[in-house]
Amino acid sequence: MSCKDESVRTEDVLAAVATGLWRWDNVTGTVRLDGEAARLLGLPPEPVTVPESTVRSRFHPVDWNEVNGIVALAAAEGTLAEARLRVVDEEGRVLRTVRSRSKPLPDRTDYQLIGTLQEIAEPQPGTTAAQPAVTGDWRRSREAFLLDAGRALAEARSTAEVLRVAASLSMPGFSPDGLAVFGVAGDRLSVIGHHGHSPGDESPFTEMRVDTDYPAAEVVRTGRAIYLPTPEEYKRRFPATWPLAQRFGRMSWAFLPLIVAGRTMGAWMAAFRQPVSFSPDERSVLTTVARMLAQALQRAGVAESERELSTGLQRAMMPTLGPEIPGMAIAARYVPTGGGLQVGGDWYDMIPLPSGRFALVIGDVQGHDVRAAGLMGQLRIAVRAYASEGHRPDAVLSRASRFLAGLHASGPGEDGFTVPRFATCLYVECDPVTGTLELARAGHPEPAVRLADGTVLVRATAGGLPLGIVPDTDYPTTRFVLEPGETVMLCTDGLIETGGHDLDTGWARLRTVLEAGAPVGDAAGLEDLADDLVAAVHGPSSHHTTGPLADRREDDIAVVLLSRQGAGPPAPAVRQTVVTVAQAEPERIAGARRQVRDLLHDWADPDQVDSAVLLVSEMVTNVLMHTDGDALLIASATGAPGSRRLRVEVSDASDELPHKRHPGEMSSSGRGVLLMEMLADRWGVDPRGEGKSIWFELHEPGA
């Protein structure tokens, strides 16, 4: 008897039971059919080799789309590929339903599929279990389940949360009641988490060697899934470890590899109280969940590593404020931006000085990435070193600018080229005995001062370029006294501009918070005020905020509050501001106008406020135009609200006294004295040894 005759008789037998043979070659893209297989596909009933596209056109598109996934799964697991397929004619009408049972024969990345096609009975009309409807419902349930599972696992932010999501998954028709996730550490298995077991049940499986005769260990070694549909199958294949599983009373088990980027990072066990046959559809669902679970665990592990690293960076880079200072209270907050490491380019510091004074520093390195955090750490150390050597504020910033420029600190720009990294900084040297503050500013927002009566002023401060732009830059120093009961606020632009605000609207928002706060009499009150400032921008915050709230930050935030303790405002209350406008800085006239307007924020007569602002602008402008020196503005308001007196003095170094002129309609100057006479309640000129002082007074209605 020849092999050929034997083959013919086999085909005849299969044809008698409506079963055909096919061979699908993935390399050549052809399918070889025997006569019965060709008949089942609606082709002439004779052996034929046809292109893959011909066979594809004979199957329902929905069924064909699932074939590739089923075949790939069977090839990966070394099992049969089983599928139910509907055969259609040229017009898309269903002719019959066939069952395919095939064995993939992989060859590297290619494979051949050898198997059978068998016609199955069509459901009779009126039956309660029409197979196509049941199959369609199950497929829809499966797709909905996988979408929900994928979304839930993608949103999990920690390993514990991933395991909770995995435990809550309700698979369509065959939900497991026991789950376990195994990890690999060296040559040992570890139980990362489990569900459906009592505490301590994982003990026998912890520290198990990878070469143990246990399903999870074999899955880790081979990277192939293991399905055990019955206890007998478990006992037959793994007799050594069967007693460990027997006590849980389960009926079926699935062990699947957790693979990320081609590397098996662990195994996932799903155990069932009811018998499960692990059909191709069920294996497909389990395999998909295992892949999503592996990706979620990988993401959670990376996120936890980043959080641990960022927490360490915070502890290393963000200092404590040091010991208490008699007569002073200090509070600080740091809130990093989101998107990765919870540390950025903002920083603050408190530095004891050799003179017995102390320095407060706040700064912002450009950027929110790891490089910005690294440069911030280097710059903070450099500033601390220069300050500890006893240098004055201007010298500290000049040296810091040269230091940053010398680092060649640059990062990639949007066009692929490099751009220099710079930093803004505000350095304040404080004498705790007298309350004297000496400030030097490098492109940083100006400080704000809350007076003893709650009035908030943005303190005009001379400044220079940000650090690192021009190595040899001068930074002028501004000096003022923090009186008892007053508080100065230093902050980065993140506190001002977050939430779509610009500098003006951002300051207005902060001024409302500062003015509404209770009087600061101790350190606890200052801490509350710091919390209120951060909460006004982003909601409740701790000293160092991390987690989902921090992830929504638009920019890093750093804020430092310094308050001089003492008896509250004197009686009568005095508000005062001092502004210097240099010849080379005429733009600071706008700052002087703003200082006066802020000083009179609760003045009873708005027209008098406008008059005061106009007169200040006229007086300071005249000094810059008609003298060679700078203008010194001192404005003070005394008395109780409703009966206060405003006195404004502008001093200069010129001996030439102003005189009244009569300008024409087209004249651009000469109206200063006329405005004084028209708008001020009192005004005058006081000659001094060197220069003069021009002053005016306004009396609040009722004064």
Task: Characterise the protein shown here.
This protein has 703 residues and is α+β, with helices and mostly antiparallel strands. The chain folds into 4 domains: 3-122, Beta-Lactamase (2-Layer Sandwich), CATH 3.30.450; 140-309, Beta-Lactamase, CATH 3.30.450; 321-564, PPM-type phosphatase domain (Phosphatase 2c, domain 1, 4-Layer Sandwich); 574-699, Heat Shock Protein 90 (2-Layer Sandwich), CATH 3.30.565. The protein is 35% helix and 28% strand. The strands form 6 sheets. A 6-stranded antiparallel β-sheet has the order 3-2-1-6-5-4. The protein has a 6-stranded antiparallel β-sheet with strand order 9-8-7-12-11-10, with helices on both faces. Strands 14, 15, 18, 19, 22 and 23 form a 6-stranded mixed β-sheet that branches. A hairpin with a 4-residue loop joins strand 29 (682-687) and strand 30 (692-699). Helix 14 (503-516) packs across helix 15 and helix 18 (606-626) runs antiparallel to helix 19 (672-679).
Offer a few descriptive terms:
703 residues, alpha+beta, Beta-Lactamase, Phosphatase 2c, domain 1, 4 domains, six-stranded antiparallel beta sheet, elongated
Output the CATH homologous superfamily of the largest domain. PPM-type phosphatase domain
Helix content: 25-40%
Number of strands: 30
Specify the structural class: alpha+beta
Beta-strand residue fraction = 25-35%
Mean pLDDT: 80
- How widely separated are the two ends? 130 Å
**Largest sheet data:** 6 strands, antiparallel
CATH class of the largest domain: Alpha Beta
Alpha carbon gyration radius: 40 Å
Shape: elongated
Question: How many separate structural domains?
Answer: 4
Runs with pLDDT <50, length 5+? 1-7, 123-135, 409-417, 541-553
